[in-house]
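Here is the promised in-class demo. Please do not try to memorize the tokens; focus on the logic of going from shape to residues.
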């Protein structure tokens, strides 16, 4: 039973920590969440610095 919990936890960790961050989301313009955030904060910083 411990092995099952361990493998389930590893699978969930992989999905949350890697897969969801790099897969492309159609709601974000087919960009990964990391790419979307990087572009968003770059645009935000450039508009604030003007």
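The designed amino acids, position by position:
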């Amino acid at each position: 039973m411990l092995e099952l919990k361990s493998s389930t936890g590893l699978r969930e960790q992989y999905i949350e920590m890697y897969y969801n961050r790099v897969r492309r989301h159609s709601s974000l313009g087919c960009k990964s969440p990391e790419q979307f955030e990087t572009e968003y904060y770059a645009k935000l910083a450039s508009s604030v610095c003007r």
